[in-house]
Amino acid sequence: MENIKIKVNGSEVEVSPGKTVLQVLSELGIHVPVLCHYEPLMPQGSCRLCVVEDRGVLKTACTTPVEPNMDIKTDTPNVINSRKLVLQLLFTERNHYCMYCEVTGECELQDLGYEFGLDHFEFPTYERKFPVDNSHPFIIMDHNRCVLCRRCVRACSEIAGHFVLGEMERGIDTMIIADMDIPLGKSSCVSCGLCAQVCPTGAIIDKRSAYLGREVQSDVIYTNCDLCPVGCGIEVYKKKGANFIVKIYGDWNSDVSQGVLCKVGRYLSLYDEKKRLTGIRVKDDFGYRKISEDQLIKLVKDKIDKGIAYVDGTLFNEELELIKELFKDKVYALNPEEIPISSNITLNDLDNRNFYVVIGTDLNREYGTVGSIVKRNVIGNKAKLMVIDKEFNSLAKLADYVFNIKDMSMALEIIKKQDDVVVIYKDINSDEIKLLSSLTNAKFLYLPKETNSLGLQKLGIKHNNITAEYVFVFGKNLEGLKNLNIKDSTVFVFTPYENDEIHKATVLVGISNGFEREGTFYNLEGKKLKREKVLRPTYDTVDLKTFLSQILGRAEKVS
């Protein structure tokens, strides 16, 4: 299509058709104030702050498409006065006393007040008190600070796919509600936290990050979550000059998750309450005694030739490669996992499908970003959903078909009649694999059990329950340790957490964990992702990669 000619502030410009006035003005470098508009969301035009004048008529720039012969003016007295009037109404409708608000200094409404030089209001300020919802474990919803931009409602549905938030009442009485007006903490909210990330004021805030510091007081580290094999892109806000994390946001530019996170990545990664294993300990007749890292290096070097290694899928590729080199390929996966049907679809391609089949997993509780994609298509785009599981699955209430996993053959008869099918699966047996393999009209997405399960596969590391005089165990998920035949072996365990199983070991080594580590891993799509180190270790722990490199003579000791 040919370009369209329009005038902008008296100058003629050519623009591509299909764009909004706001998009054109942004491309031309012309600032237009916005509040309800947020780039990843569909434009709504509810705040009216982006009004511009076109041939004498005020129009919202964010929702108005460009058309031939437009004469756009962005700074006429009519435009400026209209924006100021709207801004005053927003400030006076509810409680916006900035000095008491948690987000003062990074509030978009406050910024607009400074931009327009508001130093008084021509209307009476608010008199009505609105409720504050403190029922949620991670989020506070303060309706007194809400400007009804509806960003949270749109983000919850359009992006996160959960469709929890909505509205009730009309006009200035409008309130954002969860489900059918129940407390947020008792609603169907899955704690993805996207509402708090997109809120322009202090209406929805994270409890943990409140008053810990402004974004300008933080260093932002762009990295990937390593708590599940999705590997969502995250923005980590670390307080400048301090060794703690203020908050975590979803990274809109991530080609994995496009800004979406789950409860684990946004919140639980900062609420680690497990007891850490610290120091280096060796068991003798009187219990465990501490030894130095130099003593540990000598001990490991002396025993490594007679030893084998077990690793789990929480280790990074660099650590796995060093372990393979040290143990001359006598390395085995601690937890058995075979990938029965390889994935042949990416997360980006998972969108806009007609028929989703979810087997053996509740996507509201794990792999949450995958759940967001499925739910926004099932609820928003009216795609069909089949849930196959052996126990209760919260996705069942959205499903067109629900089957017990023992009735897989019946389910397949329905699947074979559909088109554009995606099967998302986990934990299936050999009979179920055989049945699924017969499908010719489906794409498959396997959900690995551990973060770097595909890294283990690429390095050829498989499960094998064998023993040796010395057994070295590395990793965080030590469930498989109880199944090993190690009663006559001397066992070395390198892990970040205390648990009942590790006390079978002769040597215990606390290793760095979470944001104290760096390395790469392969996510469920097979993409190699980087995890950046954000924090200095706060416990007496060993950096596993550095330790292994020292044994190979490749690294100096890190103090």
TrEMBL record:
Residues 218-276 form the 4Fe-4S Mo/W bis-MGD-type domain. GO terms for molecular function: 4 iron, 4 sulfur cluster binding; metal ion binding; oxidoreductase activity. InterPro entries: 2Fe-2S_ferredoxin-like_sf, 2Fe-2S_ferredoxin-type, 4Fe4S_Fe-S-bd, 4Fe4S_Fe_S_CS, Mopterin_OxRdtase_4Fe-4S_dom, NADH_UbQ_OxRdtase_ferredoxin, NADH_UbQ_OxRdtase_Gsu_4Fe4S-bd, PSI_iron-sulfur_center. It comes from the Bacteria. Keywords: 4Fe-4S, Iron, Iron-sulfur, Metal-binding, Repeat. Pfam families: Fer2_4, Fer4_Nqo3, Molybdop_Fe4S4, NADH-G_4Fe-4S_3. Residues 137-166, 180-209 form the 4Fe-4S ferredoxin-type domain. This is 4Fe-4S dicluster domain-containing protein. It comes from Dictyoglomus thermophilum.
